[in-house]
What does this fold into?
Amino acid sequence: MNESLAERRTTGKVDFRMRGVVGVWLRHYTAFKGGWMVEMTGIILEPLFILAAVAFGIGKLVGDVEIRDGGVGYAVFVAPGIVVGNAMWHALFECSWGAYRRLQTNRIYDSILAAPVSMRELALGEITWGATRALMTTAAVLAFATVTGLVESPWAIGILGIGLLTGFMFGGFGLIAAAVAPSTHMLTLVFTMVGTPLFFFSGTFFPISTLPSWVQPIAWALPLTHPVRIARALSTGDLHMGLLWSLLYLIVAALVFYPIATRLLRRRLLV
Amino acid sequence: MVRATGLVKKFGDFIAVDGISFAVQRGETFGMLGPNGAGKTSTLRMMSGLSPVTSGQLEIDGIDATANPRSIRDVIGVVSQHDGLDPDISVRDNLTIYGFYFGLDRKMAARRADEVLGFFDLRSRGGDSVDDLSGGMRRRLTIARAFVSRPRLVVLDEPTTGLDPSSRNRVWEQLAVLKNSGVTIVMSTHYMEEASILCDRLVIMDEGRILGSGTPEELIRERAGADVAQVRPEAGQRDSVHRQLKETDYEVAEIGAIFTVRASNDRRADLTKISGARVSFRPPNLEDVFLSLTGRGLRDE
It folds into this structure.
């Protein structure tokens, strides 16, 4: 037995081992490496199709969109929304569908938990991997948007961080869904009832101000609205203090979803 | 190595484990024999730190399992009924990643993976997907995984259930070698043959309780007595044979198409007067012990 483990056992400090989190992440990375050619198509190609359709197609038909300091071309307006929206999809998919498969279909969680990995570490490993995938797609789509001239400010590099945080937030949300879903059937509701409306109504494809006034507060409460707002500001260079509220929303949501997911998984598995 | 006192597991109102007590010595292979629903899996899950103890005491390798489930998992290896193998990574990675969870560095984990792959005759399959393995190989890989961390105690939940006879024999041989290497093994089974081949000592469980304990020989000597008669009715004679047997004062049980008949003293049952059936005698086994303790067969549902 490893000495440092034996040591930690006797100190009786907070029972959290980074090794558990890293181990779970490493498992995902190993699986990803095994099938990366296929995985990459999902990470890069799909958002690229949407972005290309908007930039070279729809964008040509739609006029400028008004944002805080004037108008921008439609493709410039939409690009950061698509970048962050994809970060959401990837984290959500990995931590709901993927996690459910590991939990229920293949029962991998049972064996991970039979090793000295705690539920808290397992959940954080899952969410961190979801965030990693979100970061990968963010980087890929952002790079494409940059070379096609849809990014106007060097601040846009910060979108990588926003993509990562978006991944943590929706990774936690996805894991909650996986923990409570009775079947894969129910789990698809996460995509149709949560993913799709968020993708379209979070100020991604049109400004929230175009929605009927009674719907606008709802749109502002949606979790994807905030990373989209920050990403757009970074992309156009239109930074202001109000964005800090959106950043706070993002961080708090991520910090709230994670322990809830841990608790629900515990309730499901450790009986 | 393991000491359980008044161990209880409840799921809502259902009592899965009803206050059992037992002790396992270091280096021993200890079995729990019983039918489905006897409480074996619940007991093993509590021992693995995967299921909270409802009440009672459970100590493993000097650690209080009710308070430190994780410290338990540092020192034991678990083979659950569902293999829980990872189909998204290779056979070998299933082992190296598992070693990493236990605190082995990646080089050490790789070395241990190769060692256990070799021991369980899986070396040539290291790069394959788990999905390409046969049932017997999957089981061996699951057992191999439990040994990656060099555990002091290995807990196996029905290690050969669902395997064909030759795969089963192979698992038994390998477990026998590991047992001789000094590791403590606790296993559940509903195969009496498995229990008598592998276990130094065992408990017989039913409905959450321990009904008897001892070495297989002790249990058989004390609870099953002399040779057991097997009465095989000729075609169409079942009811008539059954009637004749009921008139004796022997203990009679029907398993499948044959009657098992035992005298209550230490002598063989005298069945010379039974007509319409073939009578043969065999030495008693653990199945008879279970039968005499519960009045049912091990595999009755």
